[in-house]
Amino acid sequence: MNPENRGDSDTQTIVRLYRRMRLIRHLEEEIARVYPTDKIKSPIHLSIGQEFIAVGVCDVLTAKDRVSITYRGHAAYVAKGGDLRALVAEMYGKRTGCAKGRGGSMHLIDMDAGVIGASAVVGTNIPVAVGFALAAKRQRSGQVTVCFLGDGATEEGCFAESLNFAALHKLPILFVCENNGYAIHEPLSKRWATDRLVERVATYGIPADRISDGSLTTVRARAAEAITAMRAGAGPAFLEVLCYRWQEHVGPNRDYDQGYRSADELAPWKADDQVARLADRIEPALRARIDAEIRVQVAEAFTFAEASPFPEPEELYEHVYS
Amino acid sequence: MSTSTAEGRLLRYVDALQEAFAQEMARDESVFLFGLDVDDHKSIQGSTRGLLQEFGPERVFTTPLSEDAMTGMAIGAAMAGMRPIHVHIRMDFLLLCMNQLVNIAAKAHSMYGGSVKVPLVVRSMVGKSWGQGAQHSQALHSLFMHIPGLKIVAPSNAHDAKGCMIAAIRDDNPVLVMEHRLLYGTEAYVPEAPFEVRPGRARVVGPGDDITVVAISNMVPECLRARDLVAEVGISAEVIDPVWLQPLDIDSLLASARRTRRLLVADNAWLPCGASAEIIAAVLERAGPDAGIMVRRIGFAPVTCPPSPPLEAAFYPNPGTVASAIHAMVRPAAPAWQPDPERTRLSYQSSFCGPF
Ligand SMILES: Cc1ncc(C[n+]2csc(CCOP(=O)(O)OP(=O)(O)O)c2C)c(N)n1
Ligand SMILES: [Mg+2]
Asked: Can you tell me the ipTM of this complex?
């Protein structure tokens, strides 16, 4: 458990989690709303419906801990405390973006907040995250690294290679597989002979758990256990969290009319929307106040992005070598 | 050297590719096509449309995200007598296939003393625009041109997309086909019957006398636009499409450059150790010391591709920068010249819209 959060009352915890969840949801809804104006000329991969994983895991991390994220990384970036204005500015390609307009939507980073970058080549972030964990162990910094990955990423060779090495060296890394059942439009059934992912992982000597109840509370509790053990030297752990991508793979829309999946799949997830679940547990007046604050916060981030300057063409040659 | 023909129907690049697969798969049972997303409703922008329905899931299938192993698998199948076509939605992902392509596919025929062959086709698409950024925009043909045993082709129009693809499928060697996303919607006349655009033949796509411009992949339409722009100030540029990058038709390029005595190579890639460097070196080497050919290259800025629109615009060569380079070579004593930026725009380039 994050020491900063210890001793919270239940209500404080719920309010804190709700704020994060609502912020991410509202942010991504705004991104989807603005997208058709073509102000964001960068491929966007929304995580609407999957936010509970990043929020649950990041809530038990300290500010010093690290997260390695994917191109579908808005939720984890925000949940870890990444700069909101710099995120939106990055999507706009502005100089004030978190990567100065050189990363775009798929390459968010905020080193101060422990967001160590996102790759758009699936799986490539996994060994890099292992390297951060190796460094933390050598430096005795006490930092834990969380590596977020999709179900598709587990099919890359570097996934297996990374697990083996992390286990061998007892590295402080938590792998969190967000299993939304699809890689683009291809369902698991066309990619895996069996879905016993956690069994496969366990054979490396890594404790592996599957969370299938779609609950933020469960994710948070399991992540807390794994990370507490890790801080005591237990080595890597693995969580597979079942979830569902509500929007299309890339872009601002829903795609249930495209024939590869049906809206029936969405229904149970939507009925158990974790943002709404938390909202129900907060007194309406307080909730309305929080929602209003978040609307302002997100609107400010967009205003900031819009008002920020583009890089000058002459800046093209900067940052090639350090 | 061949010239472009006006037979056939007007077809989009993407549909010409699709037609090549459909015809070759119908002709030869051993051809199969696979790779991530080839069988979904988007069907690689339409280039694999209908193939699953026509040829079934044994011959048209998606894969796990396992490019390295899938490449090796294709190589094995090819050595065993099949003709696989492995599809990648971006050329950047070929970096995951590099070991198998370079250490096995390219070398098997040679290192096993000719006892096996690897009739493999690897398709990949270069991304550009809409913030493709660092890892979805690379054209890596030069990396592969370095390796003996691999063939590389970069069709720049619908006619060649079909003809080169059929030639690649029938070739007994591993062939990398570099496609370009911005070319997918462009149209050309394409014969309906199967035909081959064979390795090693360049094509003059726009004749001229003052300078030879060798243009690769989507730089072909951009250089043709540049040719129009410089024509307005009285410069006659010859634009040549090498079509096949390995093997390269150096003779045709040399014949043109000998005549114009100026050679500009426009690549949709970085310059160092690139296709442009190879073409210039090969031409000058063969021309000998007395040919007096002035040379120049133009391509990506030597930086990582940025998604921010103004930086992205500065990163790529375009008809305007090509036209300026041509002008500077043909009229070195004249002040630097730039065409009106509005006139340099290409409709197919500005029409692309996201999300991917
Ligand atoms: C190495 C590699 N292969 C293919 C792609 C194309 N691609 C982009 S996202 C994606 C699906 C990844 O699925 P998953 O890991 O489950 O993540 P999700 O998108 O579901 O969050 C694919 C195949 C890629 N970016 N990188
Ligand atoms: Mg997935």
From this structure: 0.95
